[in-house]
Amino acid sequence: MKKNEHSARQAGQALVFVALGLVVILAFLGFGIDFGYYRFTQRELQTAADAGAVAGALEVPACGASPGCATMQNAVTTALSENGFPGATVNTGSCPAAPITSLQVYVNNPPKNCMGALAPSGVQNANEYVEVVIAQQEPLFFGSVIPGVAKPVIYTRSEALTGNGSNCMYALDPSNGGAISLVLGVANSQCGVVDESSSGSAFTCIIASFTAPYIGVHGGDFSLCAFPQASPTTGVADPTPTDPLQYLQADLKSGAPVTGTCGTGSGGVVRSGTYTGSRAALTVNGTVTLNPGTYCGGITVDPGSNLTFNSGIYTLNSTPSGSPGGLTINAGTTISGSGVGFYNAGPNGGINFVCSSCTAGSVVLTAPNATNCASCPAAWQGILFYQDPSNTTGSVVVGSSSYNTKPTGTSYFPDASVTYAFDASVTYNILVAKDITIGLAWNGTNINTNTYINYGELADGSPIKSGAVLVQ
Question: What Rg value do the Cα atoms of the chain yield, rounded?
Answer without folding.
Answer: 31
